[in-house]
Design brief:
- By secondary structure, the chain is mostly helical.
- It is about 45% helix and about 10% strand.
- The strands form three sheets. A three-stranded parallel β-sheet has the order 1-2-6, sandwiched between helices.
- Helix 2 links the parallel strand 1 and strand 2.
- Helix 1 runs parallel beside helix 2.
- It is globular and about 55 Å long.
- It starts with a helix and ends in an 8-residue tail after the last helix.
Length: about 270
Amino acid sequence: VRHVLEAAGDAGVGHLVVLSSALAYGAWANNPVPLTEEAPLRPNPGVPFSAERAEIERQAAEWRDQHPSATVTVLRPVRAAGGPDDWLVRVLRPAAAVPDTTDEPPVQFVHLDDLASAVDLAWRAGLSGAFNVAPEGWIPGDRARSLIGVPPTVPVPERAARRLLRWGSRWGLGGPVPELVPYTVHPWVVASDRLRGHGWAPTVSNEEACVEAHEAGPWATLSPRRRQELALGLAGAGLVGATAAATLAARRWWRSSRAVVVGRRPGPGG
C-alpha cells in the first residue's frame, strides 16, 4: 500500500478509492448497533486482517494530508457474496458450539455487484471520506443459521467452546478460528446511510446475499420434525457437556484441596 501511495503521489493522481473493511471497527460488546462512519476503528487483537485495514486507512489519511488537492474515498464493506469463495464468509460460518453466555449477534452481507457499484459511484462522484457498504438492516443470528442450513447452537462453557473451535480449525472441520471468535459473539453491523445519500442503491438484500454466500448444509434438507428432534438432542448433549465440565472442575478442586491438606506439615501436637 505504501508503494502504491508513493506511486500515486509521483504520478499526480487526484483521486484514490481505498477498499478497507467493516472488520476494522472491531467486534466489541459495547459497539453501537449499527456502527456509523464516526465510530473509532478498534480492530481486535490477534486478527491481522482487521489491523491491516486500519493501518491502510491510516496511511491513506496520511497521504491525503500530504496531497491536499487530492481526494480519498475509503469504503468499508461487510462480508461479500456472489463471487469466488470468500475466506471471511468461510471462517465466520456459524459453529455448533458457542459459549453458554452468548447471544449470537446480527450479521450482514453485501453482494460483489453492489460493492462494485459503490466503487464506481465513489470514483464518478468524487466522494471524499469513509463510507460503510452494506444493504439496509441486518439479519438476526438465529435467522442466518436457518437461511444457510446450520444446526442450532449447543451452549457449552466458554473454555470448552474455544477448545472445540481450536480443534475444528486445526482439523479443517469449519467454524471460526479462535482469534475471530469476537466477530461471532459481538455486534459489528454498520449503517450505510451516508453512501445511500449519494445515490447508492444495493440490488441484493442481506438475506439474498447471505444465502448466495453459503452452500446449504445438510440441516437445510431435513424435515421440520427431524430438525426438532435433532435440536432437542443437541440441547441435551450441551447440558450433559456443561454438567460434565462442572463435575470435572469440582473434582479437580477437591483433589487439589485434599493434596494441600495431606501434604501439610504437622503441627506441634500432630
